[in-house]
Amino acid sequence: MAVSSTDDFVVRVQGSYDRMSELRAFDDTKAGVKGLVDAGITEVPRIFVQPTKLEESVSSCETKFIFPVIDLEGIDKDPIKHKEIVDKVRDASETWGFFQVVNHDIPVPVLEEMLQGTHRFFELDIEVKKQYYTRDNTKKVVHVSNFDLYSPSVPATNWRDSLFCLMAPNHPSPEELPTACREILMEFSEHVMKLGKFLFELLSEGLGLNPSHLNEMDCAEGLRVLGHYYPACPRPELTMGINKHSDNDFITVVLQDHIGGLQVLHHNQWVDVPPTPGALVVNIGDLLQLISNDKYLSVEHRVLSNKVGPRISVACFFYTGSLPTFKLYGPIKELLSEYNRPKYRATTVKDYADYFRYKGLDGTSALLHYKI
């Protein structure tokens, strides 16, 4: 039975439970989680409920860790400062897999407008947003709730909606982008691409390579910008904003608002990534862990649901995703030796992205599939 509206879905979930039918019913509304909230839902539908209780795993970290914040100011003017920053980037990438950067040269008004533009899109009338709603990941602009909605290994649907925009290497024409965030998406993407290439230089140096090494490998060739919208949740202890996962790219640059909820698994404890005005979060992706042969770590992270909302974040993925490609990525030969053998088999970005998408956010690392 097709479901034409969110109200119809709400009526359905109050009856008997058939998970696949309810997933289809939810998807057919094309209204996402926001549609449920707008319909006045007061209980979390069963498709979103985690199979195990979250109370224990959500408890605050007992050990007080200081999340790494790296100030990039003056890096091009002082060789000593430059080396200090490279050392900090390397250390954070080896131990945390995450760090924040400040004084990154992206103006604060640009960051604020990107958050506001993302918010504007999700606040559009549902009939306007429906034209972008699709599960065809070959499209350059995709509005969807849970890319892995139908993955059989994913335990529960997440409490978030997303807008995926492929901004490089083949960016959309301006007309293809939603008017609510069109101009800022293009401006923000230019800034982030410049920052990403610079970060790859620092990461290359941290590996003892020429600064241009990772860029010459085309690690910054692709950029996909994901706007995430996490509505306020009536029972946040039952569901997750994003399940535990690591990212399927080279690096991710994340802009988050003031609400918080992003957590990193560090020393087997969940540590909050504190929202810091003007800062950007950077994390190592699976593909960079693969080519660095485990020198840099792609660390598991998650996003909690919250009674306060909506929470807005913008995640910038440096990879080409499912675009056709023949380029193979394996452990960088300059890093290998008799004592540091390759730990992974080579893969194309497309193969890795497709496997990750098929597997979904099931709580396991896609890297295991490529281990030698």
Automatic annotation (TrEMBL):
Keywords assigned: Iron, Metal-binding, Oxidoreductase, Vitamin C
Signal peptide, first to last residue: none
UniProt xrefs under Gene3D superfamilies: B-lactam Antibiotic, Isopenicillin N Synthase, Chain
GO biological process: coumarin biosynthetic process; response to molecule of fungal origin
UniProt keyword annotation of Iron present: yes
Pfam families registered for this protein in UniProt: 2OG-FeII_Oxy, DIOX_N
Domain Fe2OG dioxygenase: 219-321
GO terms of molecular function: 2-oxoglutarate-dependent dioxygenase activity; L-ascorbic acid binding; metal ion binding
Family, as annotated: Belongs to the iron/ascorbate-dependent oxidoreductase family.
Protein name (Swiss-Prot/TrEMBL): 1-aminocyclopropane-1-carboxylate oxidase-like protein 3
Species classification: Eukaryota, Viridiplantae, Streptophyta, Embryophyta, Tracheophyta
